[in-house]
Amino acid sequence: MTETFWGLVVAVADEYPNRVVAVDDYGRLLTSSLLRDEAESVAAGLLQLGIGPGSIVSWQLPTTLESLVMLAACARLGVVQNPIIPMLRHAEVGHIAGQIETDLLVIPDHWRGFDHVAMAKDLGIRSWSAEYEAPVTALTPLRLPSGDVSQLPAPPVTNDDCRWIYFSSGTTAAPKGVRHNDKSAIASGASLSERLGFSPDDVYPIAWPFTHIGGIAMLVTSLNTGVRLVLFDLFDPATTADRMATHGPTMLGSAVPFFRAFLDAEHRADGQLLPNVRGCVGGGAPIPGDVNQELVDTFGVAGVVGAYGLTEFPNCTCEWFDGPDVGRDVGPAGPGVEARVIDGELQLRGTQCFLGYVDESLNAAAFTEDGWFRTGDLAEIGDDDRIRIVGRLKDVVIRNAENISATEVEEAVLFHGSVADVAVIGLPDSRTGERVCAAIVLTPGSTIDVPTLAAHCIELGLAKYKCPEQVVVIESIERNPMGKIQKDKVREAVLHAIESN
Question: E strands, 9-76, where?
Fold first, then answer.
């Protein structure tokens, strides 16, 4: 393990200069040496914009080669970087940039029809942008700032300073800033690198946001093992799996919507589309048993390999593709990770652990007195050290492997004039893992439907993917004496209402 993330980039470029790290859906390619060179150029471009070591750079880019290069460029320059999920909008981006005092926001002009530049202006954030909706070919240069690399300062030499800030909605209405250093960022790829047996012959397509903390983990894994990443900035269940197939993927992941698309495409091709698949990895939410079995029957894999992590502790566990009882749980703790269960709660410590929250007032509740991180998830650890997640203390909905704060959605819904009371829960969904369900008590004489409620929430600044997908009207929402919603009672009422209709 190198001391810094940039050191890892340079070491791999020196030893394997022509190894392909990643390609994207447009036919563009990055070898390890190109990644190093392009990152230095972009770092120099940031420097010319007045950004230097210690500056805070937020960037909100889709899953293309630009994301990999931007991540490495920030590491080269020694800034504190803050990758932001592309689908987040005014409310979330404003909170994030305000809390960490972003010096520069790197964004598309427009992407998927949304005006990111206008958002930055509305929020008063200094930005740099390029157009991402124009046609892209294999010859399209990187849509990032560039400059004279001879002007760059020396790269960072320590790995213990905060260099990364990722935001996780967690259990509170406001996103929580999670601080990492190079040491924990590099360690985030340890479990995947050790257990999945990757080599330069492996190909892993990615259609989830690379700005998720899983992005740095997969880039570290690629640099460590040679697995080729294939990046897709848009996911269309009808076409993306077929486009992925042209790259000969050997691994598929990572959540129900993607697996469903792979299976449907394979069935359409009579089992001839994805012949090289040797493993499937799940993360973010449990994979339904019927989907798991269909993957086994269709691709001949042993099952969906379990992996578990949090923004605060990115890849705590991972199984082996050929291990025993694949898919039964999330496997044992990974290299450098210690796990224990206290009062039913899974607690962790090790190199991957974050430095603490941006809001330091949250740290006391996040750690035990003896320094273990409290995950908030309920778990069991067997005699064979394998970990099974049995529930969660956190009040979140896990949709498409992303945590959605129920409290945040509830606060937006409550501003609608037809809503007297609301509780948000997650219901099982074969396509997304869980869907956001709003259990609503209506004001007298009112009605409401999903499109109306979604439009209302979006108008208040809530990201589209967090909006309720199902509305169930119930008579009342039960609370305990302290006023806390009793979600178990709400769930019972929702299921009863659904069955009655």
Answer: 20-24, 29-31, 56-59
Strands 114-115 and 110-111: antiparallel
Q: Is the pTM of this model over 0.90?
A: no
Provide the 3-class DSSP secondary structure of residue 426. Answer: strand
The pLDDT tens digits for 169-197 are 644 446 799 999 999 999 999 999 999 99
Homologous superfamily (CATH) for 398-500: ANL, C-terminal domain (3.30.300.30)
| Contact of 255 with 282, CB cutoff 8 Å | yes
pLDDT one-digit tens code per residue, 48-87: 999 999 999 999 999 999 999 999 999 999 999 999 999 9
CATH class for the domain made up of 5-136+144-388? alpha beta
pLDDT at 346 over 90: yes
- In the chain, which residues fall in CATH 3.40.50.12780? 5-136+144-388
The answer to whether 338 and 350 have CB atoms below 8 angstroms apart is: yes
Q: What is the dihedral of CA 90, 96, 98, 99, to 10 degrees?
A: 150
